[in-house]
Amino acid sequence: MKITPQGTGSVTARAWTRTAGGDRKRLRATGTSEADVLDKLKQQARGYLFVDGVLSEDSSMAAALAAWVEDRASNVRPQTLRIYRDTVRWLSPMIGAMSIAEMRPAVVKRVLRDVERTRGEGAVGHARTALSGAFGVAVEDEALDHNPVLSLRRQSKERPIPKALTVEQVSVLRQVIAERELRVARYSGTSAHLLRWVVEVMLGSGLRISEVLAIRHQDIDWELNRIEVSGTIVDDVDSWHLVRQDELKGRGQARFIEMPAFAMSALAEARSSMQSITARQPAMPALQGQAEGKIVSARNIRRSLRDAREDSRLVKALASTGLVPDDVTPHTLRRTAATLVAAATGDLRNAQELLGHADERTTKKHYAGVAFKVVGSARVLDQLLGGVAGG
């Protein structure tokens, strides 16, 4: 290799390399410094060895994170890719200038602690995923011998007991929602009933709120009293408009759910309130607000629920089991359905099937129950909740 300073302040370097097929190739590069041209020559040489663009131990973490996002781009859903990119956007300024070789397990551990301190516990999981993915790409490129994230022990934190409502608390919640409905009906029209409809369907199905709002007319079997669960509501990554995604959070979660009478009654009432033919088309949402035919935002439902849960009667009922108004969320309703089913049947698998979890441990850790293909806890839920509707 020959390096020659130029009169203009630049540096030129020449060298030879051998291709993967054994041929000799001459390399030439011009840059602002000796280090600059050496880097360019290395990049050219890698191109002849089918390793163009690979990471080295001197590569920056910013490059490693970018390589991971690029590697995953065609293998994950758009919404997941958005999360990855958002994570890299705030993680890169923290560690992007460090080299891959500097990221020893002890350093990674300190980074994750700093993420928890500055961004909260929820961000740690995203950071851990991004770092592990970036190091995985580096291992494949032989820039690392092992993934340092895998050397870290997960912090064993005591998980709180999953929060769910009792039958009595559900009764008070229903009463509060019914009275709120009467108050807002004067200026909200049909949408005044929306919170009650969504709550009833969630209590009867254990679905996520985005799955409830994704139910279409064509998904409801009125003769068999069951619904088909096959999609969820997401933000379109390009337009940020709400769209129905014809797949669920996890693979293999599509299922039919036998619905209790109180939930079917809510769906029937919602359908009968629709005035236009368009709103009743098979592909239209089964639960609609004032804007007929439009997808309802989960944010609107959460906002309405926050308004209702501050009622003094509900606050008192919640206190009997150590809960506070902030504990009443759509996810709590999902847990409630699963917990009641598991407690009444004595079988966690019934709840697992209801929730659609692939692993019973997920149900046990975060809820109380299981998922079903044609899953049926309708009779149990009708017995527990069918006679306690408020208002």
Characterise the protein shown here.
The protein is of the alpha+beta class. The chain has three domains: 46 residues, no CATH class; 91 residues, Orthogonal Bundle (DNA polymerase, domain 1); 219 residues, Intergrase catalytic core (hpI Integrase, Chain A, Orthogonal Bundle). It has 15 helices and nine strands. The strands form three sheets. It has a four-stranded mixed beta sheet with strand order 4-5-8-9, with helices on one face. The longest helix has 22 residues. About 3% of the residues have low confidence.
Unreliably modeled segments: 366-375
Number of strands: 9
Q: Could you spell the SSE succession in H and E letters?
A: EEEHHHHHHHHEEEEEHHHHHHEH
Give the number of domains. 3
Radius of gyration: 28 Å
Characteristics of this structure?
single chain; 391 residues; alpha+beta; DNA polymerase, domain 1; hpI Integrase, Chain A; 3 domains; four-stranded mixed β-sheet; three-stranded antiparallel β-sheet
How does the SSE layout of this entry go?
Elements lengths: L1 E4 L5 E8 L5 E8 L2 H14 L13 H12 L5 H18 L9 H15 L1 H20 L26 H22 L5 H12 L3 H4 L7 E2 L4 E4 L2 E4 L6 E4 L9 E4 L2 H12 L25 H11 L3 H8 L10 H16 L2 H8 L4 H7 L7 E3 L1 H8 L6
Parallel strand pairs: 8-9
Antiparallel strand pairs: 1-2, 2-3, 4-5, 5-8, 6-7
Helix pairs in contact: 2-3, 2-5, 3-5, 4-5, 6-11, 7-9, 7-12, 12-13, 13-14
